């Protein structure tokens, strides 16, 4: 079966070598075009629906928005898990579909169901929004925006109208969430005493402000020759004009709005905030989080975003932009540098070994060529399958280097040995009646190829269970096993075709010049010494088979006995230079309280040698994937790659431990995302307890937590603070409303 393949490669050497060159060229293109990501896509197909309802309390959001939307979306085909969160003013419903589900079809089905339910939601709720499709490692870049001269409102205008549209236009960017945004508004601050002295109500002020700022349709006016559109220009579009607006419907001297209220520019009560820090200290600002699409190239998206920011800098005077707060592309670049180093080191070691044992540059070149050809073939197949070049795939290629080189070395060494046979040997190409170099190369290749084929197939079978893994483990380790198998199979194909063709082309020419009519040692001295030592050792091992089997069995048993003493971990601890720290205060804490504690801890963290930059987002952003309250903060800490990694991390954890009463953890982004995908929360293991009584649930949760705390290795254990959050409740008294001549709506509007 192998003989026709090798014969074809030897007889069509130009074709084979041309195909090898084309494969290398195609591999360069594939490596450039294949999407690059930090880790494989490990999250199941996901659709998230968010519904804003400003002003609604958490119980009202749950009852009026979350439950109806859950009921509408339940039962969608291929739906596996449905999760929901309700926070102040926001409902979020997350649908997780079975692996392999067409995400576009799932989003279409969700959109159709939402269209039926949207009209039945309360009028004060905004239309439900389906968030853009995001990858499992959605964060592509975190950008801090600060200014010593511009206010937060001016920064928000600049980001909304200049920066964010430019970034959203970049291919691969799914969303740009903005934390700390302050949208410009006109605030009318009414003086109740002056209002009461003039006998007016708050409704009159609201009516006057609405009429002064409303945009209404004007229709059109027909003339004999034209139809002219009518446009009503707003009376007031700035504080001064609005304050001069008169209040209608009152006799006597006219009152203007400024007589009863103060009009100024401001912003809505914030739903979140942002802190950006560097070596000069923490600063309030905006934090832009660039999220990428599932199939986007992280490295390409990052570089495009950074290039767009550089082009925008002339328009951003007095604005400091820091795109280094969180940059996963740096991890990818480091992985690629490590791969290049591994390949170069492998090539150097192969050259050294071949030159030491064979003393032949041409043989070394033939063996070395197998490395780029095999790895390139694996990348090309990945590119054709539409896969992603990530850290796990690169790790598989690095692991396969030894097998790749071994295939070529075995073949080249055997061909060289047969060609360098003494002239009087029957196998020598110079002896009378000896076979031609073509026949010698063919025979030498077939001689070792069967054993190499069997060993390659055995290795591939060993990887088969990994390729069949499902779930999170399969998503991570399938790319590694796939890269290894593809590289090994490609090296086998190279050894069957390219290696014999190059050996027949290059080796006979130089070996003819080395041969002489005098008997010569066909092998270099190092090879002879190793061969003689092996020939002395082999008979002794064959004569004592039981001893050999006993040594092998003892080694296996020793390895098995060491397994219980090894720690188990899903993934190794990658030395990422970007850390995520959850900072959760008691429920009911305000944005201002969270900001104060964040500024304190950030000032301490930035004093640590090795901490490069700091960024934090408090609460949530509009159309962001964080559905939390104002007591929830995420701190992002970037470490200088040149700093002492372990020492810097230990100092960070020591600083964080100095803040009691706040739940905090220090994680890499990968670990945080894995926990979120597994459990829907920030913990690796989540225990959910159900029941109708909140007090009993809390007692049960504390008992479960006490039991889990005794388990060795458990860290960052917490019970979700299901406590009664303080709130103000207004209950209307109908008899008092009747006496005062007021309606319930008037009182509610005044209180709101």
Please specify the SSE layout and strand pairing.
Layout lengths: L1 H10 L1 H21 L12 E7 L5 H16 L5 E9 L2 E8 L5 H16 L10 E2 L8 E8 L5 H17 L4 E7 L5 E6 L1 H6 L4 H12 L3 E6 L4 E5 L7 H5 L13 H4 E6 L5 E7 L2 E4 L1 E7 L5 H15 L7 E7 L2 H29 L3 H24 L6 H29 L17 H31 L3 H26 L1 H17 L10 H19 L1 H18 L15 E7 L6 H15 L5 E9 L12 E8 L5 H12 L6 E6 H11 L14 H15 L25 H7 L3 H8 L1
Antiparallel strand pairs: 1-3, 1-4, 2-3, 5-13, 5-14, 6-13, 7-10, 8-9, 11-12, 11-16, 15-17, 15-18, 16-17
Helix pairs in contact: 1-14, 1-16, 2-12, 2-16, 3-4, 5-10, 11-12, 11-13, 12-13, 12-15, 12-16, 13-14, 13-15, 13-16, 14-15, 14-16
Describe it for me?
This protein is of the alpha+beta class. Helix content is 51%, strand content 16%. The chain has 24 helices and 18 strands. The strands form five sheets. It has a six-stranded antiparallel beta sheet with strand order 12-11-16-17-15-18. Strands 2-3-1-4 form a four-stranded antiparallel beta sheet. A hairpin with a 2-residue loop joins strand 2 and strand 3. Helix 1 packs across helix 16 (498-514), helix 13 (391-419) packs antiparallel against helix 14 (437-467) and helix 13 runs parallel beside helix 15. It is elongated. The N and C termini lie far apart (84 Å). The model is unreliable at 513-521 (pLDDT under 50).
């Amino acid at each position: 079966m192998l003989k026709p393949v090798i014969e074809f490669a030897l007889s069509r050497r130009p074709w084979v070598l041309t195909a090898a060159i084309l494969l290398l060229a195609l591999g360069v293109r594939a490596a450039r075009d294949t999407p690059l990501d930090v880790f494989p896509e490990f999250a199941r197909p996901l659709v998230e629906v968010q519904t804003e309802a400003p002003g609604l309390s958490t119980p009202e959001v749950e009852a009026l928005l979350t439950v109806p939307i859950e009921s509408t979306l339940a039962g969608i085909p291929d739906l596996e898990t449905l999760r929901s969160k309700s926070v102040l003013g926001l409902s979020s419903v997350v649908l997780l579909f079975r692996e392999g589900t067409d995400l576009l079809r799932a989003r279409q089905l969700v959109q159709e169901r939402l269209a039926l339910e949207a009209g039945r939601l309360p009028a004060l709720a905004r239309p439900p929004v389906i968030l853009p499709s995001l990858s499992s490692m959605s964060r592509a870049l975190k950008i801090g925006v600060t200014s010593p001269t511009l206010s937060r409102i001016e920064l928000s205008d600049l980001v909304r109208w200049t920066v964010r549209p430019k970034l959203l236009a970049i291919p691969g960017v799914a969303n740009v969430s903005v934390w700390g945004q302050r949208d410009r508004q006109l605030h009318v601050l009414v003086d109740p005493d002056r209002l009461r002295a003039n006998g007016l109500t708050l409704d009159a002020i609201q009516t006057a402000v609405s009429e002064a700022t409303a945009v209404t349709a004007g229709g059109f006016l027909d003339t004999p020759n034209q139809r002219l559109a009518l446009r009503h220009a707003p009376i007031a579009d700035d504080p001064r004009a609005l304050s001069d607006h008169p209040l209608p419907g009152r006799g006597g001297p006219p009152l203007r709005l400024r007589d009863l209220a103060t009009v100024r520019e401001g912003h809505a009560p914030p739903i979140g905030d942002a802190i950006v820090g560097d070596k000069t200290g923490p600063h309030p600002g905006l934090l832009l989080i660039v999220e990428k699409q599932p199939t986007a190239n992280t490295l390409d998206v990052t570089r495009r975003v950074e290039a767009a920011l550089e082009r925008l800098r002339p328009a951003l005077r007095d604005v400091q932009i820091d795109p280094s707060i969180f940059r996963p592309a740096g991890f990818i670049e480091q992985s690629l540098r490590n791969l290049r180093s591994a390949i170069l080191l492998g090539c150097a070691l192969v050259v050294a070994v071949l030159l030491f044992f064979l003393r032949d540059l041409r043989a070394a070149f033939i063996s070395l060529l197998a490395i780029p050809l095999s790895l390139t073939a694996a990348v090309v197949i990945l590119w054709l399958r539409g896969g992603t070049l990530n850290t796990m795939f690169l790790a598989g290629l690095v692991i396969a280097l030894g097998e790749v080189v071994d295939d070529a070395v075995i073949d080249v060494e055997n061909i060289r040995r047969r060609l360098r046979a003494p002239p009087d040997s029957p196998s020598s190409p110079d002896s009378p009646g000896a076979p031609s170099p073509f026949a010698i190369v063919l025979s030498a290749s077939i001689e070792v190829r069967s054993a190499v084929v069997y060993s390659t197939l055995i290795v591939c079978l060993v990887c088969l269970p990994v390729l069949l893994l499902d779930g999170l483990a399969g998503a991570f380790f399938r790319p590694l096993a796939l890269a290894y198998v593809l590289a090994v199979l490609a090296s086998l194909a190279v050894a069957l075709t390219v290696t014999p063709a190059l050996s027949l082309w290059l080796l006979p020419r130089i070996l003819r010049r080395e041969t002489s009519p005098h008997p010569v040692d066909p092998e270099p001295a190092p090879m002879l010494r190793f061969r003689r030592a092996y020939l002395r050792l082999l008979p002794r091992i064959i004569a004592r088979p039981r001893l050999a089997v006993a040594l092998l069995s003892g080694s296996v048993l020793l390895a098995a006995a060491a397994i219980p003493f090894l720690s188990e971990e899903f993934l190794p601890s990658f030395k990422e230079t970007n850390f995520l720290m959850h900072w959760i205060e008691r429920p009911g804490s305000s944005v201002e309280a969270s900001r104060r504690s964040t500024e304190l801890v950030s000032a301490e963290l930035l004093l640590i040698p090795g901490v490069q930059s700091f960024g934090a987002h408090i609460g949530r952003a509009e159309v962001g994937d964080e559905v939390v309250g104002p007591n929830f903060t995420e701190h992002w800490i970037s470490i200088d790659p040149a700093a002492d990694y372990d020492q810097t991390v230990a100092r960070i954890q020591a600083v964080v431990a100095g803040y009691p009463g706040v739940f905090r953890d220090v994680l890499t982004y990968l670990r945080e995302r894995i926990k979120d995908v597994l459990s829907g929360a920030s913990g690796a293991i989540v225990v959910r307890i159900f029941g109708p009584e909140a007090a009993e649930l809390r007692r049960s949760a504390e008992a479960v937590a006490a039991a889990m705390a005794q388990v060795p290795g458990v860290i960052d254990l917490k019970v979700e603070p299901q406590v009664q959050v303080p709130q103000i409740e207004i209950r209307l008294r109908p008899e008092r409303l009747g006496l005062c001549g007021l309606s319930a709506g008037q009182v509610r509007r005044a209180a709101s």
